Amino acid sequence: MRYFETIAEMGHEQVVFCHDKASGYRGIIAIHDTTLGPALGGCRFWNYASDDEAVVDALRLSRGMTYKNAVAGLNLGGGKSVIIGDNKTANREMLFRAHGRFVDSLGGRYVTAEDVGTTVEDMDFVHMETTHVTGIGSKSGDPSSVTAHGVFRAIQASAFQKWGSDSLSGRTVAVQGLGHVGYYLCKELHTAGAKLVVTDIDAGRIARVVDEMGATAVALGAIYGTKADIFTPCALGGILNDDTIPQLQVEIVAGAANNQLLEARHGEALEARGILYAPDYVANAGGVINVYSELTGWSRERSLRKADEIYQTVLSVFRLASDTGIPTYLAADRVAEQRIHAVRGMIKTWPQYPNKES
């Protein structure tokens, strides 16, 4: 990979490669843009096939956080970190304390949080070494339920846009991924009267949702061809691609996974098929809203109210797409870029000689 050319093309400010021999920590911290504030984004712990795959994931995810935070109206930039390794390991304290030290070395330019493969307890280890971490047990904790609520509201907004009613009663929703967010989302969908078709790499997670909510289980690959009203990806990214889009038998795609489009052109492919796409970083902003509340001192109730606003944000993206004749993923980008450019263009006022000793 041509690293400097790649980060220049994607607009990144800084990428840090980190290694701690004692703990075996191998991490990458990517800071995309700090126009709106410090770069906030979770720490993903994953057994990547190659170092280049880890770098690409960090770059894509951090850029997505810039847009997510901007669209959500938060005073935060975008960043992300990844740790390369087996996220099932029991030896976590020193690994995450090492991560905390590297985060701290950035002096607040990046704030880390929970993501795929990491837990609230891991963030508590990080907190032993830095204050630049959110989602710790003594504060906002696991953001999954707030993320799920925001995605639920995005699904309702998509239903309203497509069918003129946001009721999900009797609608069939195919959910891919039943981790923390997927499970909480299934509970909300079930309460709303939706019929669930589900899949996951973990048989125990499937059994739980089938038993508790009467869901129908299908094989991993079969979820794409499932006949349903809505497809809800809640696992990893890149799942909307040349192979899967032709299989879809749904009218809406709205879910919690990050970077659902493998490439930008796959947003065009969904549009061509008449499938309404709720841009992922708009729909799943509830999690970052939850951790932002930790920085601002918001109550959990206020965080949920802010997550409720995702409904109107999604509708505004749909309206812009319709008014300008562009796909919804581009409309979401435009909303984010307008806010970033507006803040970047503001007049800066500086105190006189801020570092001069008297």
Write a structural description.
The structure is a single chain. With 358 residues, the protein is of the alpha/beta class. It folds into two domains: 3-65 and 76-127, Leucine Dehydrogenase, chain A, domain 1 (Rossmann fold); 144-339, Rossmann fold, CATH 3.40.50.720. It has 13 helices and twelve strands. It has helices at 3-10, 51-71, 93-104, 120-127, 144-163, 180-191, 203-213, 265-272, 280-283, 286-296, 300-308, 310-324, 328-344; strands spanning 14-20, 25-33, 39-40, 43-46, 77-84, 110-111, 172-176, 195-199, 216-217, 230-233, 252-253, 276-277. Strands 1, 2, 3, 4, 5 and 6 form a six-stranded mixed beta sheet that branches. A six-stranded parallel beta sheet has the order 9-8-7-10-11-12, with helices on both faces. Helix 5 runs parallel beside helix 11 (300-308) and helix 5 (144-163) crosses helix 12. The longest helix is centred in the N-terminal third of the chain and has 21 residues, at 51-71. The chain is globular, with a radius of gyration of 20 Å. The termini are far apart. The model has no long low-confidence stretch (mean pLDDT 93).
